Amino acid sequence: MTFSPIFRAICATAVLAAITLAVASCGVAQNSTQKRILSLDKQAEEMKAQIRNTQSEIEDKNFSTFYYISSQGDDLSDGLSPDRAIKSLKRLAELDLKDNDCVLFRRGDLWRGQIKAKKGVTYSAYGKGEKPRIYGSPYDAAKVGKWIETDTKNVYMYDGELPSDVGTLVFNEGEAHAIKVMMIRQEDGSTLHIATGEPFASYRDLKRDLEFYHDYKNKKRVYLCSTEGNPAERFTSIEISPKGNIIQATDNTTFDNLCIKYGGSHGIGSGTVKNLTVTNCELGWIGGSIQSEDIFGRNHPTRFGNAIEIYGGCENFLVSNCYIYQVYDAAITHQHQGDTEERLVMKNVLYANNLIEDCVYSIEYFLGRKDTNPSHYMENILFTNNLMRRAGYGWGKQRPDKETPAHIKSWTHHINNAINFRVENNIFDRSTHDLLNIAAARKESLPTLSANTYIQYRDKMAGAWGSEGIRYVYDQEVALALKDLFGEEKGEILFVEE
């Protein structure tokens, strides 16, 4: 392995944690799968608490300059100490940040907007309490603005202008969420509701509770069907997820101990990048805005959105000890179609000790369609000691393509050349479709799987696997297929009976 010292340290921690997990599992090996799932419920709650309460150690490190930002700060200050903290993200963007500087957000505080990170800068937390929150949502629409009753029964218009397409609305901090209505275009010019096939042309066709329509091209207003009265009276909070990355990353940036939520595109996103680190963060309710009106030959818009994404090449990409949930697409991904002449390399990628729940894909990766440059490759890729649960069970199930969820998603139409690719000591707990989707043009590029736990409904989909992307059923033969294709000999396979 050629991982940097920080990668090797995280790997060592992951191995110790994996040993602990294995010991804890011995006593329940003969119990029912249902009891095992209940034990995972408890383990997940413990991981959430641990991640949410991780303390910052950033201030003990040797940075050039520390800058402090607080919701009680003053934008006329220089930000060089907690009692001289700046206040706004706008003021943060104006700071002359340099390589090896560190920005610290005060715990317990909330900012709304986007951050364009600067090269070589670390972003983390100071003080005591909950992680500082960075929300893409411009405001709480239960408290700011008005929901105005329209000429259609039970349909309300939010009076704030929202020019960027909204991915979803989240009510009462996740107790409920809205269902976005998109339109299928017919050859005769008419349009249909994407889920029901009923005629749908405007907000006047909203019928079902919590369905919404966003007229972002013309009136730039959101319309919501609420059968239980005015949304502002019905809910204590309404968060809006507009299109755009909440944080735009770049080279040599670290994001630590932040809570990042309510964005219509990506939580943390970047193009080709080196030395991107995300640790001890919480990311939730990400994605769902329209990527394109016309893409993939579809007669309807395509939505997108990942919690942490690199689109392009990368070197030294670390995501560790994060809690990621309710994402329209992937919790974590490094990806590229490969439609470039420049050779793309994805090198030294480590995802370790993360809790991922209710995302369409827990981990997604792909590199190079079969009609692109065959020299693209991945090297030194390790997914270890992650607890991944309920792929496709979250709010992303409203997407029209139901046959996509998987805990690992590689897409069979990509070459996915890889060297030294390992998937070890993870738990894959149920999926609405594939448990795993792992394919490559050459058998030598497939990852090695070792000591993972697999939980899926009996006779449902195990996934599309191997150099030919053959589909496997999750039955008594699945253990043999895992061994033959991926070398999995130490795995635990559990069946859920419907």
What does this structure look like?
This protein is mainly β. The chain has three domains: 5-62 and 246-496, no CATH class; 66-135, no CATH class; 147-240, no CATH class. Helix content is 12%, strand content 38%. The chain has a ten-stranded parallel sheet with strand order 1-2-5-18-21-26-29-32-35-38. Strands 3-6-19-22-27-30-33-36-39-42 form a ten-stranded parallel sheet, covered by helices on one side. Strand 9 and strand 10 (176-177) form a beta hairpin. The chain starts with a helix and ends with a strand.
Secondary-structure map:
Layout: H1 5-26, H2 33-52, E1 66-69, H3 89-94, E2 102-106, E3 110-112, E4 115-116, E5 122-126, E6 133-135, E7 147-149, E8 155-158, E9 166-171, E10 176-177, E11 179-180, E12 183-185, E13 191-193, E14 211-215, E15 221-225, H4 231-234, E16 238-242, E17 247-248, E18 253-256, E19 259-263, E20 268-270, E21 273-279, E22 282-286, E23 289-292, E24 302-304, E25 308-311, E26 314-320, E27 323-327, E28 330-336, E29 345-352, E30 355-357, E31 361-367, E32 377-384, E33 387-391, E34 406-409, E35 418-424, E36 427-431, E37 436-439, E38 448-450, E39 453-457, E40 461-466, E41 470-473, H5 478-486, E42 492-496
Parallel strand pairs: 1-2, 2-5, 3-6, 4-17, 5-18, 6-19, 11-14, 17-20, 18-21, 19-22, 20-25, 21-26, 22-27, 25-28, 26-29, 27-30, 28-31, 29-32, 30-33, 31-34, 32-35, 33-36, 34-37, 35-38, 36-39, 37-40, 39-42
Antiparallel strand pairs: 7-8, 8-15, 9-10, 9-16, 12-13, 14-15, 23-24, 40-41
Number of strands: 42
Q: Residue ranges: pLDDT <50 for 5 or more in a row?
A: 14-30
How many structural domains can be distinguished in the coordinates? 3
Largest beta-sheet details: 10 strands, parallel
Dominant shape:
globular
Relative strand content: 35-45%
Radius of gyration equals: 23 Å
| Secondary-structure-derived class | mainly beta
Arithmetic mean of pLDDT: 93
**Helix run count:** 5
- Give the N-to-C terminal Cα separation: 43 Å
- The amount of helix comes to 10-25%
Order of neighbouring strands in the sheet with most strands: 1-2-5-18-21-26-29-32-35-38
